[in-house]
Amino acid sequence: PTLPKLAPSILACDFTRLGQEIGAVASAEYLHIDVMDGLFVPNISFGFPVLEAARRVRDASGSAQILDVHLMIDRPERYLEAFVKAGADSLTVHVESTPHLHRCVQTVRELGRRAGVVLNPGTPLEAVRPVLDSVDLVLVMSVNPGFGGQRFLPQTYERVRTVRRWLNELGSEAELQVDGGVTAENAAGLVQAGASVLVAGSSVYGPEWEGRGGAAAGLERLR
Ligand code: DX5
Ligand code: ZN
Q1: Which range of residues forms the domain containing residue 158?
Q2: Among 177, 199, 204, 209, which is best to mutate for testing ligand 1, by the most ligand atoms less than 8 A from CB?
Q3: Atom of ligand 1 nearest to the CA of 182
């Protein structure tokens, strides 16, 4: 079985130590950055200054980690260019957040960045089909977006299997990412269902790793 790529989510980290918290997960292929606007989801997280800071930490470390920005905002087309300027390598937009999904994907590609699309748990998978051949990443939410630390929804396995089948049929090399409630307990099952990238917040940055290797140890448990 292939090893998953990992995308630790800084939403769960200690923001008083942002630089160290990012450094602790430097071995991960991605750094997941959750942007919430208080409209598309019932919570507000952070925006440009935090992304810019993460970018500086990444650049100073010399790592090739991909800054993977998950936009939980209404009408993301308004801000795509600004997120690229702030340092995003990859921009993922919700199919529910815009009537112009295809345009968003096109814009991100024209800006020279990776384009991702994401589905809420209640959204029919068919909503991504029209853009499936033009994206670099498909994200299947395994919780309702807005908060870290929620319980994984088991219907995700079937949804991942279906999207994996569609990507294979297209011969697409797009990544298939899962986000929400990912732990060492469900990681292997998700990979088996076809996921290639696992996002994890609380299982990486959670208090259980305090004094036991911290986030670096939490990350390794997911491999
Ligand atoms: C949820 C965010 C997730 C969140 C995951 O809205 O999109 O990326 O940080 O956190 P955990 O892993 O704790 O469920
Ligand atoms: Zn996320």
Answers
A1: 5-220
A2: 199
A3: 12
Quick one: how far is CA 76 from the chain centroid? 16
Residue 110 alpha carbon to ligand 1 centre in Å? 28
The pLDDT value given to residue 2:
84
What's the pTM value of the predicted model, to 2 decimals?
A: 0.98
Taking the C-alpha atoms of residue 68 and residue 175, their distance in angstroms, rounded to an integer, is 12
Residue 133 designated active-site: no
Give per-residue pLDDT as tens, 180-207. Answer: 999 999 999 999 999 999 999 999 999 9
* Residues 58 and 22 sit within 8 Å (Cβ to Cβ): yes
Amino acid at the residue 145: P
Which of 11, 92, 204 should be mutated for ligand 1, with most atoms under 8 A from CB?
Answer: 11
Can you tell me the distance from the alpha carbon of 88 to that of 48, in angstroms, rounded to the nearest whole number? 10
Give yes or no: 37 in active site.
Answer: no
Atom number, ligand 1, closest to the C-alpha of residue 11? 9
CATH of the domain at 30: 3.20.20.70
- Structural tokens at position 192: 């088996």
Number of domains in the chain: 1
159: amino acid identity, one letter: R
DSSP 218: H
Ligand 1 centroid distance, CA of 96 (Å): 18
